[in-house]
Design goal:
It is built from ten helices and ten strands. It has a domain of 153 residues: Rossmann fold. It is α/β, with parallel strands linked by helices. The longest helix is centred in the middle third of the chain and has 20 residues. The strands form two sheets. It has a six-stranded mixed beta sheet with strand order 6-7-8-3-9-10, with helices on both faces. A four-stranded antiparallel beta sheet has the order 2-1-4-5, with helices on one face. The chain is 39% helix and 24% strand. A hairpin with a 2-residue loop joins strand 9 and strand 10. Bound molecules: adenosine-5'-triphosphate. It comes from Nonomuraea zeae.
């Protein structure tokens, strides 16, 4: 589904990524871990389109996205959350999700609005149903009418996840999703991510979360992939242990 092939990134004399390759299968959750400076953020920036690689390519379901802008990547179904939550504080939780749904318009202009054209009403109903579904998935139904600004960071992060999910992305990129969360919220988030059924690539420092949530893990060190595999194998890999212990 998501494929990264031979990606290298140079920053001046620093090779931040060195021929990184991996594939995330449809519906799979893949984690990216590695010590500080390993290249995780750079990799995320390459996949989401904020950084153009010096070499290599990124493709989604066979379509080459390497030279495609972040906005076009989002249209192609690649959605990203950021370490700093980006929600609308003055909107309720439900309206935050509603605002994230792609509004293609109902056709017919103002006259149709006034007449409540049936097609438009149907679209509106579908949008509201989707909001309810996504809120339920993220455990936000009890908070649907709360203003996002009033929520603690953990819940805001769930709102951000709900917004990213709203129009059914093909691939979700989660950048440090547990940062600022307490232990209970982290467990809640792990359950929500696993329940999605969406292809996910996530960068995360919390090893417990990564081991619990991911189907496969890619380990980076000094810009290179030093291991790829399921959590149990990664946990025991001597090369990975050596990289972390320095
Ligand atoms: N804009 C930049 N200009 C120059 N060097 C950079 C730039 N961004 C990152 N680097 C360097 O590239 C390497 C990889 O950095 P990156 O931030 O991707 O690592 P990381 O794994 O995300 O680290 P951390 O866990 O600390 O966030 C580091 O050596 C870093 O100093």
């Amino acid at each position: 589904m998501l494929s990264v092939e031979g990606v290298s990134v140079w920053f001046g004399g620093v090779k931040a990524l060195d021929e990184v390759s991996f594939e995330v299968g449809e519906g799979r959750i893949q984690g990216v871990i590695g010590p500080n400076g390993a290249g995780k953020t750079t990799l995320f920036d390459v996949v989401s389109g904020l950084c153009r690689p010096s070499e290599g390519r990124v493709s989604l379901a066979g379509r080459d996205l390497t030279r495609v802008s972040p906005v076009q990547r989002a249209r192609a179904g690649l959605r990203r959350t950021f370490q700093r939550t980006q929600v609308f504080g003055r909107l309720t939780v439900a309206d935050n999700v509603l605002a994230a749904l792609d509004w293609h318009g109902g056709g017919g202009g103002l006259a149709a609005d006034l007449a409540g054209w049936p097609g438009r009403r149907r679209l509106e109903r579908e949008r509201r149903e989707r909001v309810a579904e996504v809120l339920e998935l993220c455990g936000l139904t009890p908070l649907r009418d709360a203003y996002a600004a009033a929520l603690p960071v953990g819940q805001r992060r769930l709102v951000e996840l709900a917004r990213a999910l709203a129009d059914r992305p093909r691939v979700l990129l989660l950048d440090e999703p547990t940062s600022g969360l307490d232990a209970d919220q982290t467990v809640r988030l792990a359950a929500a991510v696993k329940a999605l059924g969406t292809t996910v690539l996530l960068v995360e420092h919390d090893m417990g979360f990564v081991m619990e949530t991911c189907d496969t893990i890619v380990v980076l060190d000094l810009g290179k992939v030093i291991a790829t595999g399921p959590p149990a194998a990664i946990r025991q890999d001597p090369v990975v242990r050596a990289a972390y212990l320095g």
